């Protein structure tokens, strides 16, 4: 089978996804990154749609790429108007690209209902638009919109549309599952038929409304498509386009097809996170191949087998796509989870199983009380270090008082007064905050800063409270999960109590203790107490 081209439409169809938008600068950065990865095409936008896309094409015009061709998107000419006077086609020409991708209707129903024209005029729109762009020297890809729905409804007409594009000189015809509802077996049958009926190279453009876009794209390749169109992270209209971060490793590792150079796949996870960062979207943890959970192992049985051979629970090595294996600890852990973490944390020579078992039982008891270590790797590491390395927190709370006061203006303020033992010194501090936890955080920082100035870099990223037994009303036990970061790394810590201040204190104290521990380990000069 010939090499498969990857056509990225993150910057066009991806931005049709809810909440996804890129600035011109972002679009340029993403184009460069995709080129470096080895993508064959980057669809930069629709010049006839908006000034931002026009500006993108203006700025990118003189850039030289290693191999990516930048494509401009647009529709076929308007009904009843000559192609050489169609604003949209002229905008594609003016964008300065060498590759145009135009979409046209291939479902008779759409021709009547959406375009409001005749079947004959639509065929002419397709042929004229392709021929016009070809006559101006462009490479032309024709996206047959709704092809599979069209084929189901009126196969003769759907095929006539493809032939119109082919006969007008299209360099490729792309079969679009625009509504994303086609099932893989049917899709493969249709692509197989089209492959035999036409000469022009075929591509696939699948949407994910049935959750089948990846399967559909791979089967389309099996049936003869040589181009896969999709987006990074599957962004796109409604449920999105096919996720190229899923399709590419499947093509490379499973189908052994030449596509993106295999050695570049180690940058795939980074690429996915880079694009989600620019799109300002949280990464999807369960995303295949590149998600943080894609190689996260929780069940004891799994981790036990994984220690014997990673292939028992991993379909590919995580490093091959630049991802990482993670072992989670929880009440579902077995000894193996603990052994794995003990080794990962580099806590010393192997222990006998009774020693691991003791801590495992402690961990399970704590989880039964409401602690959750899966999201609190900082607290878990402190627990392990205390058990196996005699670790002690660098400070100890002697007393704490929290005052909450309604002041004249009707606002409620809190003040925390704490007495802390740091090494052999007693430190008294007080601080105000907009609530008791905020005041406690401020008082703790004030007390520790003098000894560990480096904690000034630590920021609270997230503070979550979960009521564990809501039937108890205001007397319920709560779990507090805190996420802290120092600009380079972030860590989670946990506290549980029927008193929200106490639970918050436990999580806060762990978060500072863990931060200081890591800074000391990394040799931060002012992480050492004087
Ligand atoms: C399957 C896809 O994802 S295709 C890509 C869809 N993406 C987008 O729509 C995003 C960019 N779109 C836009 O910026 C705007 O919709 C524009 C600039 C393209 C058009 O805006 P307007 O001129 O205001 O028209 P509007 O969006 O209301 O309607 C679209 C028109 O295009 C026509 N049209 C739709 N598909 C095609 C086609 N393949 N060929 C020719 N005309 C088409 C419609 O019939 C409609 O014409 P009408 O106004 O005569 O009814
Ligand atoms: C062309 C396109 O984006 C689609 O049919 O989904």
UniProtKB/TrEMBL annotation:
Keyword Nucleotide-binding recorded: no
EC number: 2.3.3.21
SUPFAM superfamilies: 2-isopropylmalate synthase LeuA, allosteric (dimerisation) domain (SSF110921), Aldolase (SSF51569)
PANTHER family hit by this protein: (R)-CITRAMALATE SYNTHASE, ALPHA-IPM SYNTHASE/HOMOCITRATE SYNTHASE
SMART domains listed in its UniProt record: LeuA_dimer
Full protein name: Citramalate synthase
Family of the protein in this entry: Belongs to the alpha-IPM synthase/homocitrate synthase family.
Reactions catalysed according to its record: pyruvate + acetyl-CoA + H2O = (3R)-citramalate + CoA + H(+)
Keywords from the UniProt entry: Amino-acid biosynthesis, Branched-chain amino acid biosynthesis, Isoleucine biosynthesis, Transferase
Enzyme class of the recorded protein, top EC level: transferase
InterPro entries given in the database record: 2-isopropylmalate_synth_dimer (IPR013709), AIPM/Hcit_synth_CS (IPR002034), Aldolase_TIM (IPR013785), Citramal_synthase (IPR005675), LeuA/HCS_post-cat (IPR054691), LeuA_allosteric_dom_sf (IPR036230), PYR_CT (IPR000891)
Organism: Desulforudis audaxviator (strain MP104C)
Any GO BP annotation: L-leucine biosynthetic process
Any GO molecular function: 2-isopropylmalate synthase activity
Entry-linked CDD domains: DRE_TIM_LeuA3
Domain Pyruvate carboxyltransferase, chain residue ranges per copy: 4-272
Recorded metabolic or biological pathway in which this protein acts: Amino-acid biosynthesis; L-isoleucine biosynthesis; 2-oxobutanoate from pyruvate: step 1/3
One Pfam family this sequence matches: LeuA_dimer
């Amino acid at each position: 089978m010939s090499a498969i081209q990857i056509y990225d439409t993150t910057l066009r169809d991806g931005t049709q996804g809810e909440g996804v938008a890129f600035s011109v600068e972002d679009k340029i950065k993403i184009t460069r990154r995709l080129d470096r990865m080895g993508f064959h095409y980057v669809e930069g936008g629709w010049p006839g749609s908006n000034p931002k896309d026009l500006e993108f094409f203006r700025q990118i015009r003189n850039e030289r790429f290693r191999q990516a061709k930048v494509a401009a998107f647009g529709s076929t000419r308007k009904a009843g108007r000559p192609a050489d006077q169609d604003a949209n086609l002229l905008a594609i020409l003016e964008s300065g690209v060498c590759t145009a991708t135009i979409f046209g209707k291939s479902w008779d129903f759409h021709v009547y209902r959406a375009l409001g024209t005749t079947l004959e005029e639509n065929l002419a729109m397709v042929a004229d638009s392709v021929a016009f762009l070809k006559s101006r020297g462009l490479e032309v890809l024709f996206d047959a919109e709704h092809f599979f729905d069209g084929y189901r409804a009126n196969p003769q007409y759907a095929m006539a549309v493809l032939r119109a594009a082919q006969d007008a000189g299209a360099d490729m015809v792309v079969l679009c599952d625009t509504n994303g509802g086609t099932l893989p077996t049917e899709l493969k049958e249709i692509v197989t038929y089209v492959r035999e009926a036409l000469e022009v190279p075929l591509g696939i453009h699948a949407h994910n409304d049935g959750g089948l876009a990846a399967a559909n794209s791979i089967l389309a390749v099996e049936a003869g498509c040589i181009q896969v169109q999709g987006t990074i992270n599957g962004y796109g209209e409604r449920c999105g386009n096919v996720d190229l971060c899923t399709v590419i490793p499947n093509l490379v590792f499973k189908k052994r097809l030449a596509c993106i150079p295999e050695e570049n796949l180690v940058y795939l996870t980074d690429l996915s996170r880079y694009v989600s960062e620019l799109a300002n979207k949280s990464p999807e943890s369960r995303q295949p191949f590149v998600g943080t959970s894609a190689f996260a192992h929780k069940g004891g049985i799994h981790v036990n087998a994984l220690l014997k051979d990673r292939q028992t629970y991993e379909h590919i090595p995580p490093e091959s796509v630049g991802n990482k294996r993670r072992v989670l600890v929880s009440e579902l852990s077995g000894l193996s989870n603990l052994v794995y973490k003990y080794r990962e944390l580099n806590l010393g020579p192997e222990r006998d199983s009774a020693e691991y078992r003791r801590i495992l039982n402690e961990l399970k008891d704590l989880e039964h009380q409401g602690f959750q270590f899966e999201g609190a790797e900082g607290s878990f590491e402190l627990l392990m270090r205390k058990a196996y390395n005699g670790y002690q927190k660098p400070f100890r709370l002697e007393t704490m008082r929290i005052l909450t006061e309604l002041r004249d203006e009707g606002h409620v303020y809190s003040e925390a007064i704490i007495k802390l033992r740091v090494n052999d010194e007693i430190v008294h501090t007080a601080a105000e905050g907009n609530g008791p936890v905020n005041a406690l955080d401020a008082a703790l920082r004030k007390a520790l800063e003098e000894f560990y100035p480096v904690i000034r870099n630590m920021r609270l990223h997230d503070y979550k409270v979960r009521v564990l037994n809501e039937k108890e009303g205001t007397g319920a036990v709560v779990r507090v999960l805190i996420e802290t970061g120092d600009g380079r790394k972030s860590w989670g810590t946990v506290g549980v109590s029927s008193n929200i201040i106490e639970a918050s204190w436990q999580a806060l104290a762990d978060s500072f203790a863990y931060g200081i521990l890591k800074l000391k380990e990394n040799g931060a000069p002012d992480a050492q107490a004087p």
